[in-house]
Amino acid sequence: MKFGKEFVSQMIPEWQQAYMDYACLKSILQEIQTSRKRTEESGVLKRKLSGRRNFSGLTKRYSRTASSRELENQDILVHATNGDDGFERYETTILKVAEAGREAELVFFKTLDLEFDKVNHFYRSKVEEMVKEAVVLNKQMDALVAFRIKVDKPSSSSRSSSERVSVDMNALDSKEQRKTVDEEMGIKEEENESKESVPEALSVLDRIRLNKSTLSTVRNVLKLSNQEELKFTRENLKKIEERLENVFIVFYRKLRHLKNYSFLNTLAISKIMKKYDKIASRSAAKLYMEMVDKSYLTSSDEINKLMLRVESIFVEHFANSNRSKGMNLLRPKAKREQHRVTFSTGFFAGCTVSLVIALGLFIHARNIMGTAGQKLYMETMFPLYSLFAFVVLHMIMYASNIYFWKRYRVNYPFIFGFKEGTELGYRNVLLLSFGLGTLALCAVLVNLDMEMDPNTNDYKTITELLPLFIVALVLAISICPFNIFYRSSRFFFLMVVFRCIAAPLYKVNLPDFFLADQLTSQVQALRSLEFYICYYGWGDFKRRQNTCTSSDVYNTFHFIVAVIPYWSRFLQCIRRLIEEKDISQGFNALKYLLTIVAVSLRTAYSLNRGNDWKMAAWVFSALATFYSTYWDIVFDWGLLHKPSKTWLREKLLVPHKAVYYIAMVLNIVLRLAWLQTVLDFNFSFLHRETIIALLACLEIIRRGIWNFFRLENEHLNNVGKFRAFKSVPLPFNYAEEEDRDS
C-alpha cells in the first residue's frame, strides 16, 4: 500500500482536517517535477545549481546565527517565531532557487509551513487539554481511595496519623519506577515522601458528592439535583469503580490517539521531504526534520509521561496489580476478520438463494396459488412468515450501510457508542441475516402444502407451530446470558430497545433515536407480532382459523401497535426540547405527531371505508409526507443548503454527486408508498397481504438509504468540531466545582 493511502487509513476520522495535507503537498511536488522535465526537454536548463545564492530579503536576518560556510552547504533555512497566541510559527526560506519550478517550490514550502503550524498548534492544544483532564482524574482517584478506606474500614477515621495513604504512589509498581516517573513529571522527591495521613485523606469525602447516572431523566427534566449524598456501601463502591475504570480507559485511548497523531504527521513530513529532495535534487530534508524534531510536536514528552502514569494507576487500582489484565483492558486487541465468518456467510447466503429458487419451483409445480387453500394460507401463514422477511431485509440493509460507512470512513462505532472491538462488521450482520433467512425458508417449505387430515380436519401441529418456534428461538438467543452470538452487541441492542420503550425517562442519545427511527419503518413487522399473539393465543391454529380481523380488541391494538414507534420518537423529541433547549426538536416532535395522525387515519380508513376517512387520510398523509421529506433531506442529511453551489453541502463523502440527487428522489418516491392505502390499487395476480408486505419492504429499503446519509451528516458534524471522543461522566463532584459551575 502506498504511504498516502496508508496515511489516510490510519487517521482518526474526526481529526482528518487537523492532519498534514499530504495529498496537496504531493500534488505540488508533481508540478515541480513536471516543470523541471519540461524545462530540461526544451533545453532551457543549461547549467546545474551552483553555489550561487539568491537571497530573499527574509534571509538576511539569519546572518547573525549561521556562518557563511554553513549557508553555502544549506538549501533552506527555517525560522521559528512566536505568534500572538503564544504558539510557534515556522517559516522556510529557499537559499538556492533554480528557474525551473521556482514558483512551485516557493508554494511547496509555504504550504508545508502552514500545514506544520496547523499540526503543531492542534497537537499542543490537545496535550494541554489532556494535562487538565489528568488533574481532574487525580482528584477523582483521591476520592476513590478515600471511599475505599471508608467502606473497607469504617472506623479508620479515628486511626493514628502515622498510617499513610497516597494515591499516586500506590499507582506505581516499585520505588525505582516511582522515582523515574516523578523525575519525568518534574515532581520533587521531597514532595513524594510527604504522604497524607488517613484522616487527611478522608477529609476529601467532606467536599464531594456522587454524580448520579446520566441515564436518570426524570430528575434532570424536573431540574432536581443530579447528585446524592455519599453512602459508603459495597454496591456504591462497585458502581464508582466501574465508572472510573471506563473514564480511565477512554482517557488512555485519547492519549494513544494523540501519540499516533504525532507519529503519523512526523512520518508524513519525513516522507514528503524525501520526495522533495529526490525531485528537486536538494538536501533539504535533513535540515527541515531537525526543526521538526525540536518542535513541540516531536520533542514534547507529556503524552508518554501521562500514559505511563495511567498504566500504573489502572493496573494497581482496577486490575488487582495484574499488568497483563490491565493492559488488555487499556489496549484491547484489534478484532480480526475470521475466515469461518466469511465462509459461513457465503454458505448461508447460498442456502437462502437456493431455498428461494426451490420455493418458486415448488409453488409453480404444485400450482399452489391456484388451489382452494391459497386464500386461507395467505391470510394465516403468510403474515406469520413475512415477519422474518422484514427482519432479514432490514439486516441486509444495515449490513450494506456498514460496508459503505467503512468504505467512506464514517466512524459508525464511535457515533453509536459501541465498546471498542465489539462492533459488528457487515459480514457478521449478513451471517445473522442469511442464517435467519435459511431457517425461515426451510420452515416455509416444510408446511407450505400440508394436507389436512380428513378424520380430524387438523393440520400437523408441529409444522403449524414452526413460525412460533423460530420467533421463540430468536428471542431466546437475544436474551441469552452466555457469551455466544455476539453477546455484547445483543445486550447493547436490548438496552437501547428498553430506553426507546421507556422514553422519555432516559436521556436521549443517538443510538436511542436512531433505533426508534428504524422501528417506525417496521410497523408491519410489529403488526405481525400482534397477529402471532392473536393467532396462537386465541385462534385455532390447527385448522388455520382465527377471528382476529373481526375482533374489536385486535383492531384497537392494530392502531396502537402502528403508533408506538412514532409515539416513542415524539417523546424523545420532547425530552430533548426540554433538556437541551433546542427549538428544532419541537419542530421534529411536530413531524412525528403529524405522522401519528396520518397513520391512524390510514388505518381507520383501511378498516372502515368511507369518503370522510379517505379525505382525512389524504390531507394528513400529504402534510406528514411533505414535512417528513423536507426534514429528511434538509435536517437529517444536511442537504439542499444555499451556501453550496450544488445545493447539496460543502463536504460530501461520496465523490459522485449524482448519488445524492438519486437518493433524494428515491426518498420522495418511496415515501409516497402510502398512496396505495388510500387509492386502493388492486392487482388481480397479487393478494392483499402480498401488496402490504411489498409496501413494507419498500419502506425498509427507504430507511436503509436514509441510514447512510444520516450517519454521514453526523460524522461530518463531528469532523467539523474535531469531536473524536464521547464525554464520560465522572463519579464524583467536588463542592468547589459545583460552586464554580453555578
UniProtKB/TrEMBL annotation:
Bilayer topology: Multi-pass membrane protein
Annotated InterPro entries: EXS_C (IPR004342), PHO1_SPX (IPR034092), SPX_dom (IPR004331)
Positions of the UniProt region annotated as Disordered: 154-195
Keyword flag Transport: yes
Record keyword Transmembrane helix present: yes
Domain of life of the organism encoding this protein: Eukaryota
Annotated Basic and acidic residues bias: 173-195
GO biological process entries: phosphate ion transport
Compartment(s): Cell membrane
Any one GO cellular component localisation term in the record: plasma membrane
The protein's role, per its UniProt record: May transport inorganic phosphate (Pi).
Protein name: Phosphate transporter PHO1-like protein
Native species: Cardamine amara subsp. amara
Biological classification of the source: Eukaryota, Viridiplantae, Streptophyta, Embryophyta, Tracheophyta
